[in-house]
């Protein structure tokens, strides 16, 4: 393109190219030909540059998706493989879209509370995808540049937004959402036993869990901590010098990309909050059902026992009051 711009013929009659002569096109046709060539080369340059950027982004997103899935596979979790239609659509698309590979809820159910806490909900496993994502952000920032007029700001914004969007989808739909679903739907003992409880409870024995294992609350706490770490390690709003998504997008000046990233972030946290609230409400309903079981079935059992033993009314009343106090103690111990 530079050579085309200097491809000018001197206008002197002698036909000699002297350094003192002005270089101008010999005709309008020549000028138009040179201008068309420059325009064509400029278009090719932009197309080549765009292709290289798209190729880098696709490669970065593939690597990030592979590393995140490998973290879950290595901890013993099972992923649901994508359908053939998803694979075909992904292969034909110019821009890479990570296939949906959520955790297998049936396998999570088999793991139980102990398997979840020692597997997918282990703190080191929860941190690994975030570490891979921060590495991707650092590479993208180094590749495209940002701030003080360095690099292509629009390309940088698109790459950063693509990485953050994929992480929102993976960390939510593929990772945390299935775990919350299993915690709230499959691992709660929502139906109380058919046999009445033995009252009064032995104060020296462990308190009954009232249908909700204590590990349920540990799992909810770890998911909450993971969501906070996700926002702190990737978004990092108002943290100057963090070189995370919010700071990079603000530096690029791309309001469109910043708005898209904010929407992705809001959608991720809103859905996680709704799923978490649903799981906690089901746990509280389970506790309420078991409390009712203790009061009704246990009270009736005590009454029958007292009637058989010809107990007096004061004795029955005393036992019922002791039962209520023990129920309250069991409920508080599970919180």
What does this structure look like?
70% of the residues lie in helices and 1% in strands. The chain is built from ten helices and two strands, in the order αββααααααααα. Strands 1-2 form a two-stranded antiparallel ribbon. Helix 2 runs parallel beside helix 6. The termini are far apart.
Uncertain residue segments: 8-23, 313-319
Mean pLDDT: 79
- Give the amount of beta strand, in percent: under 5%
User: How many H/I helices?
Assistant: 10
- Main sheet: strands, sense, barrel: 2 strands, antiparallel
Distance between the termini: 72 Å
Q: Helicity level, as a percent range?
A: over 70%
Radius of gyration computed on alpha carbons: 33 Å
| SS class | mainly alpha
